[in-house]
Design brief:
Distance between the termini: 15 Å
Number of helices: 4
Shape: globular
Number of strands: 6
Strand order of the largest sheet: 3-2-1-4-5-6
Oligomer: single chain
Structural class: alpha/beta
Radius of gyration: 15 Å
Order of helices and strands: EEEHEHEHHE
Length: about 160
């Protein structure tokens, strides 16, 4: 298991949920929710700031596929956001895409069990979804001893030869 802080991101149309791991990659915890912008701007800047503040070496972005594993409009949106973020973080931190099917549903269920209503908790749900995405990635890496998902390659980078579960 690699050591170092990772950041998890749940990209939504209105908000971006953000989580972080501990230094040993054992536990994901919520950080904050950032308002999403139509054109990348303050949202990407804030995430870059968090990567720097937390000295993260990797950002895990949820890849929203449908239940059959097919791409959707949300998939394309998340990939575009991850590509923009990867370009801004080049040389600082890797950005990886990890399957996030049902992460928001799982987060809503956990909050409901904790007695929170989803109507007034949208920002918290986004953070909780980021926690689910990041914790899943940490568990996969710990179980397989291979970095999860796939590295986002920007047009300036050459593709890497890596195993991607």
């Amino acid at each position: 298991m690699r050591t170092g802080v990772r950041i998890g991101i749940d990209v939504g149309k209105a908000r971006i949920g953000i989580a972080r791991s501990d230094m040993h990659g054992m536990l994901a915890t919520p950080v904050e929710t950032v308002q999403r912008e139509e054109a990348p701007g303050a949202d990407v800047v804030r995430i870059v700031e968090l990567v720097s503040e937390l000295e993260a070496f990797e950002v895990i972005v949820g890849l929203p596929l449908n239940l059959r594993g097919e791409r959707t409009l949300s998939t394309d949106d998340a990939v575009g956001f991850a590509t923009t973020l990867a370009a801004r973080l080049a040389g600082i931190a890797d950005v990886r895409l990890v399957d996030e099917r049902l992460s928001t549903v799982s987060a809503q269920g956990q909050l409901r069990q904790a007695g929170r209503k989803s109507k007034g908790s949208r920002a918290i749900i986004d953070q909780a979804a980021a926690v689910v995405i990041l914790q899943h990635a940490l568990d996969v890496e710990r179980g397989r001893d291979v970095a999860p998902g796939e590295v986002v390659v920007t047009s300036e980078e050459l593709p890497r030869n890596e195993e991607t579960p």
